From TrEMBL:
This is Hydroxymethylglutaryl-CoA synthase. Its EC number is 2.3.3.10. Belongs to the thiolase-like superfamily. HMG-CoA synthase family. It comes from Ornithinibacillus massiliensis. It comes from the Bacteria. The keyword Transferase applies. Residues 2-165 form the Hydroxymethylglutaryl-coenzyme A synthase N-terminal domain. The keyword ATP-binding does not apply. It is an enzyme of class 2 (transferase). One of its GO terms (molecular function) is hydroxymethylglutaryl-CoA synthase activity. Residues 263-352 form the Hydroxymethylglutaryl-coenzyme A synthase C-terminal domain.
C-alpha cells in the first residue's frame, strides 16, 4: 500500500520586511543577507497570528468536507507552542470543523517536529487505511531585535494530509535517522526568544546530514544519481547548499548540475518567507513542486530534516501521476502577491507587541488582519480564536 502526501498547503502572514532595508538599518552590508545567507524578505507575524492560526490558515485552503470526515488524527509540529499543557492540534481541530472522533496531539523537537508527525501518520495509515492524518508544521522564529539571529527569523506554516494512495507523493521507507544531545539551539520555557550557537549549529547540521546520507546510501542502495532533487530544512537558504556541496562531487557532472539547479528552485519560497522552523523543509518541497513546471512524475526527491538539539533524518518520496493537478499554486502565489511591506520602524513595533504576561484580558483589532483565522484576544487567561468564515 502506498502512503504519502495527498495534499499540501502553506500560509504566511500578510506583512514582511525587505532584507536589504533591514541590513541597512543595522549598518550591515545588504549582500550579507541577500547573498551571504540567501534571504530577500522576512515574513512578520502580527499579534493576531500565532502558531495555531498560522497552522489553521495553512490547512483551511486544502481541506474539503470529505477530509473533515476522514481526518481522525491531527499532529501539530511546533516549537512555538502557546500552552505548556493543551496542544495546538486541539485548537486547529475545532477551528477547521473536523469530525470529533479524532486524536489531536502536539509534537516537539525543534525543527524536526513535523517530520516526526509524518512518520507517526504513516504508521497510523498503515493500520487504518481509510483514515487521513493532518500534519502541521507551524512556527514563528524569534531571536530578538538587533541580534545575530535576527536575519533568520520568519513566520508561517505548512499543512499536509497524509493518506493511502496519495495523489502528490508516495513516501518511501528507506528512512535513516540520528539523535545526539547537543546545545546548538534552544529556548528555555522562561524565554520567548531562542538562543543559538550559530557556528556550532551550522557544523552540526552538516555533520548530521553527512552521517544520515552515508547511512541512507548503505541501507537503500541509492545514490545522488537516483535523486531528481534534494530538499533541505532551511533556517536560511544558503544552509542547505552548504550541506549539498559536501557530497555533490559523488555525482556525475550532469547530476551535479541538476541537483544544484533544483536546489535553487526549492529555495524560492523560503527566501521570501524566512525561517519557519518545523515547516521549513516542507516549504522547500512545495517551492520545488510548484516552481519547477517540468518536474516529471515518478522521480525521486530526497529530503533532509534537522531539528537542533539534535535529531536528523533523511528520507525520500516519489512523485505520483498528475501530481500538479493537486497543488494549490494560484492561492500560494496570491499569498505573495497580496503581502504588504512594512518599514523597519513598523516591524520593530510589531515585534515588541505581545500578549499580556500577567493574565490581563485584551481585545485585538482583527480587521487589520486579512487572514480567515485570527487571534482576537485573551479572556480569563484563554486565547480567543475566530474563523471569519464561520
Amino acid at each position: 500500500m502506498k502512503i504519502g502526501i495527498d495534499k499540501i498547503g502553506f500560509y504566511a502572514p500578510h506583512i514582511y520586511v525587505d532584507m536589504e532595508k533591514l541590513a541597512e538599518a543595522r549598518n550591515i552590508e545588504p549582500a550579507k543577507f541577500t547573498i551571504g545567507i540567501g534571504q530577500s524578505q522576512m515574513a512578520v507575524a502580527p499579534i493576531t497570528q500565532d502558531s495555531v492560526t498560522l497552522a489553521a490558515n495553512a490547512a483551511l485552503e486544502i481541506i474539503d468536507d470529505e477530509d473533515r470526515e476522514k481526518i481522525d488524527f491531527v499532529i501539530f509540529g511546533s516549537e512555538s507552542g502557546i500552552d505548556h499543557s493543551k496542544s495546538g492540534a486541539v485548537y486547529v481541530h475545532q477551528l477547521l470543523g473536523l469530525q470529533p472522533q479524532a486524536r489531536a496531539v502536539e509534537v516537539k523537537q525543534a525543527c524536526y517536529g513535523a517530520t516526526a508527525g509524518i512518520q507517526m501518520a504513516k504508521g497510523h495509515i498503515a493500520l487504518n487505511p481509510e483514515s487521513k492524518v493532518l500534519v502541521l508544521g507551524s512556527d514563528i522564529a524569534r531571536y530578538g531585535l538587533n541580534t545575530a539571529g535576527e536575519s533568520t527569523q520568519g513566520a508561517g506554516a505548512v499543512a499536509m494530509i497524509i493518506s493511502a494512495n496519495p495523489r502528490i507523493m508516495e513516501l518511501e521507507n528507506h528512512n535513516v535517522y540520528l539523535t545526539n544531545d547537543i546545545m546548538d539551539f534552544w529556548r528555555p520555557i522562561y524565554s520567548d526568544k531562542a538562543f543559538v550557537d550559530g557556528k556550532f549549529s551550522n557544523e552540526q547540521y552538516i555533520l548530521f546530514f553527512n552521517k544520515v546520507w552515508e547511512a541512507f546510501k548503505s541501507k537503500s542502495g541509492l545514490n545522488l544519481s537516483d535523486m531528481e532533487a534534494i530538499c533541505y530544512h532551511l533556517p536560511y537558504t544558503k544552509m542547505g547548499l552548504k550541506a549539498l556541496r559536501t557530497v555533490i562531487d559523488e555525482a556525475p557532472e550532469e547530476v551535479r548540475e541538476r541537483l544544484l539547479e533544483n536546489y535553487q528552485i526549492s529555495t524560492q519560497y523560503n527566501r521570501n518567507v524566512g525561517n519557519i522552523y518545523t515547516g521549513s523543509l516542507y516549504l522547500s518541497l512545495l517551492s520545488l513542486l510548484e516552481n519547477k513546471e517540468d518536474l516529471k512524475e515518478g522521480v525521486r526527491i530526497g529530503m533532509f530534516s534537522y531539528g537542533s538539539g539534535a535529531v536528523g533524518e533523511f528520507f525520500t518520496g516519489v512523485l505520483q501521476p498528475n501530481y500538479r493537478e493537486h497543488l494549490h499554486i494560484e492561492s500560494h502565489q496570491r499569498i505573495f502577491d497580496t503581502r504588504k511591506e512594512v518599514t523597519i520602524e513598523e516591524y520593530e513595533a510589531i515585534f515588541e507587541e505581545t500578549l499580556p504576561r500577567d493574565g490581563a484580558d485584551i481585545e485585538l483589532n482583527i480587521e487589520q488582519d486579512p487572514a480567515s483565522i485570527v487571534l482576537s484576544g485573551t479572556v480569563d487567561n484563554k486565547r480567543q480564536y475566530v474563523n471569519k468564515n464561520s
